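Ligand-bound model needed. magnesium ion.
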Amino acid sequence: MTIQREDILRAAACLRAGGLVGMPTETVYGLAADARNPEAVAKVFLAKERPHSHPLIVHLVDFSQIDQWAHEVPVYARQLAEAFWPGPLTLILKKRPEVLEIVTGGQDTVALRVPRHPVALALLQAFGGGLVAPSANRFTRVSPTTAAAVQAELGGKVDMILDGGSCEVGLESTILDLSAGVPRILRPGMISPAVIEAVLGVKVETRRQDFPDAMRVPGRHHLHYSPATPTALITTSALKTLAVNEPCVCLTYSGVQLPEQALLQQVVMSSNPVQYAHDLYAVLRARDQNQFQRIYIEAVPEAAAWDAIRDRLVKACGTT
Ligand code: TXA
Ligand code: MG
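Prediction:
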């Protein structure tokens, strides 16, 4: 698991030659490619089987590179970068004209973030430029949080995977749109609207239903972030009387005791949302190997600290 300097240099050379590298970040593993090379970016879409209408995030080594990708950068961007970069926050900004259309899905904005995993930062430093890095999973599937999960998802389609251990955060970055005046959350993450508001001193828009159809709101696709096994959310009270007649697994967090049944396996998750987020994708992936007919997930609290988790769970269940 220890990454040597020569691994980083080899990965940077591979990216310069138009290759694809599985890159650890603090959120989830990304599938990295040179963001200025249209053939390399096209390979990312092919490997993920992802439609071109879903644009990519460009990863940078630090804030100083932002002007190479965005223009009319608002002061909010600098304030947020100082507070949260490197870290799990992606900013949507007006793009410079030379940013490739295949990266932005033809929109006039670009998504930018500085990740905080040391391997990602070392790779970005050695490479020198911006790297697109969508989560390293096949389209609609659960994002990988270990190198082994990247191998399982995309092995054979990537030139190299850098093993940076298990991802610290475990859920994808918060996406904040700064391109339209009022800051708006497009994808909730573990950096919450409240902490963003505290830095900016303004209200952040979080409602999702008002977005015009043409806008690429992350995760709008039916069954985004979903296991192959049918997955359903279930309330704590319904769990107490859950009866199954085929092999099922149930993820709980509240300390609820499930009725004893040979066909029902209980997985006790943390009741701390930070730890729950860290564990969720790995737990889902391990239980999504055809051994169960159904995955039940106890509905999580309404509290803001659970917003990003609830967002992913609702999508995993295909209920949007
Ligand atoms: O934590 C993360 O953000 C991870 C790690 C690897 O950095 N990356 C990630 O990338 O989650 P991906 O491609 O799986 O999700 C990026 C999301 C997409 O849903 C896309 O719709 C949205 O970002 N996006 C990209 N560019 C956009 C833009 N210009 N406007 C609105 N949404 C955009
Ligand atoms: Mg993704």
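The longest helix spans residues 273-286.
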